[in-house]
Amino acid sequence: MSNKQRQTTTNKPLIVESLEPQYQDAVFMLFGGMTYQKIAKECNVKYGTVRLWFMTGGLCEPAYKELLALRARENRRKFKSLNKKFEEYAPDALETLHNSTKAGNWKAAESLLDRAGFSPVNKIKAEVENTDDKEVSELVQELRGYVKSDNLQSDKKTA
User: I need a surface site. Which of 18, 33, 90, 111 has the fewest CB within 10 A?
Assistant: First the structure.
């Protein structure tokens, strides 16, 4: 995308800006997670009126959908950024995990895996006695090899 195209899309006014203040408020309230009932109470209108505003073809529906699309676009951008950071930091995190288990701190290793969203924590619990640091360390080595191998890349493609 060229700079000119990027400027045009970022400077384009949002649909919600063209609505009257009451409708703008309603759109932002729904976007913020409020229910139709709460929006109706805040705007001093009936529940059915709010439903009409946001139904297909309703006055507020295009503005709301535009905000949802902007949020989705931003979330995809953030996810790509997080994915790149994960790939960058995963080897260091696994090295820390390995060093923690070598030092006998298997709880730190378990916590690190859990926070990273890995389910091997269950595998470690099932296969290793909590006091057997050598086996925990071996499993961490196995996990490090898994991350460095092509298995991680092939798992990403199938996910």
Answer: 33
